[in-house]
Amino acid sequence: MTDSIPGTDALADQRCKPCEGGVAPLDRDAARALMGGLDTRWQLAADGSALDAEFRFRDFYRTMSFVNAIAHIANAEDHHPDLRVGYNYCHVRYTTHAIKGLSHNDFICAAKIDRLL
User: In sequence order, what are the beta bridge partners of 52?
Assistant: First the structure.
């Protein structure tokens, strides 16, 4: 993690805050700065509205164990990703639907997923 970038200090130790809309999504510069607090597998979508990562596993059991751990994080934080799951992979996409873009919550949850690995 990069401690010198504001907002990236221990993202995984932070808690999500409710977001019902009415706030602007993070701009591209703020999102890029927060990327420094995440594993390099996370990519910023071309339009800056989402975070994507692909995780690979040896078998279905490990994939589903990972998916269940993500579900636990999502429920605990009340912030849910979009998932694409197959036999040995899980694609995770975070975006805050209420604001049609990225919020700090997306980065918090991505960092929590990084800790699973």
Answer: 43, 93
Residue with tokens 């927060």: 34
Instruction: Phi first, then psi: give them for residue 65, nearest 5 degrees.
Output: -60, -40
* Full-model pTM: 0.89
Q: DSSP class of residue 23?
A: S
- All structural domains of the chain, each given as residue ranges with its CATH number in brackets, are 40-116 (3.30.1360.20)
Give Cα 27 to chain centroid, integer Å. 16
* Lowest-pLDDT choice from 21-25, 78-82, 97-101, 103-107: 21-25
Look at the chain and count its residues: 117
Cβ pair 25, 105 in contact under 8 A: no
